[in-house]
Amino acid sequence: MTVRENVHQLVDTLPEDRLADVLDYLADLQDEDTSIGSETNAAIDEGLNDIRGGRTISLSDYRRSRGL
């Protein structure tokens, strides 16, 4: 059995309420433009550098600072 046939067989066995999730996932896989913009990439790099530099706060401190 091919991989494609296995996928079809698995999809056929899923409950109806899970098919929308599968459809969304497969649509995401089909998207060809998966690159991120330069601004997003720079923001990710900045965040990673902050983590490496120890410039972080705990989740509870973040929530407290935001009144959550």
Topology:
Elements: H1 3-13, H2 19-30, H3 38-52, H4 59-65
Question: Can you describe this structure?
Answer:
The protein has helices at 3-13, 19-30, 38-52, 59-65. The chain is 66% helix and 0% strand. It is mainly alpha-helical and 68 residues long. It has 4 helices and no strands.
Q: In a nutshell, what does this entry contain?
A:
The protein has 68 residues and is mainly alpha-helical.
Question: What characteristics describe this protein?
Answer:
2 domains; mainly alpha; 68 residues; single chain
| N-to-C order of helices and strands | HHHH
Give the class from helix and strand content and strand pairing.
mainly alpha
Helix content: 55-70%
Low-confidence segments = none
Q: Tally the helices: what do you get?
A: 4
Record field, number of beta strands: 0
Kindly report the oligomeric state of this protein: single chain
Outline: elongated
Give the amount of beta strand, in percent: under 5%
Number of spatially distinct domains: 2
What is the rounded Rg?
20 Å
Task: Describe the largest sheet.
Answer: none
Q: Kindly, what is the distance between the CA atoms of the first and last residues, rounded to a whole number of angstroms?
A: 52 Å
Mean pLDDT: 91
